[in-house]
Amino acid sequence: MTLHNTLAIHRKAAGLTQAQLAERVSVSRKTINTVENAVFIPSTVLALKLAQALGQPVEVLFSLEPPT
Amino acid sequence: MAVNVVARIRTLSNIAIVLVIAAFLFAIWLGEGRLSEQWVWILGSVAVAGIVAQLLASLIFRNQIAAAWDEQAQYLNRQSYVFGYWLVMATFLTFFVLIQLGVMRPDAAFFFMGPALIGPSAYMAFAALRGRTD
Fold first, then answer.
1. CB-CB: which of B2, B70, B131 is closest to A27?
2. Where does A21-63 show beta strands of DSSP type E?
């Protein structure tokens, strides 16, 4: 099962680079990159941290269904 | 773009030990199985140097540890040990069969089990080169 995400969209809307977002949630830029590209599935904790950092509900960032 | 020194030194250490072990095996092949004692010191020195470098980097760049060992790095590290286990298991079983067939001596099998421990380092190095970690 694939976890779909709109992380890149909301990150760019917030005016953040991958490195800046990575620093805010204490992960590497590579992790942000692989999450955005659906290569790595984040833990619940990291998903919540990303949602908090971007000021979005976690279900807006991540979903089991492709974003509309 | 700022480099994560802790992660970068970890990767370089893994690549270094992989390259040295590969060179070691190539040297044995070139020398038709004869081993120069200096290789033992080279292998050990590279491994210890990598450990010391990672320790120093972690002490000097403490604020980079969290990012260097984020959940993806921890996941890859666990996977590297799984890979290393199965590599050693496959090597052991292969050597066991070769010994039973009389193709390999037990002391040679024991000797070559050492390089089989390269698994975790190789896995982490490959993961870094694939862009999964710094």
1. B70
2. 62-63
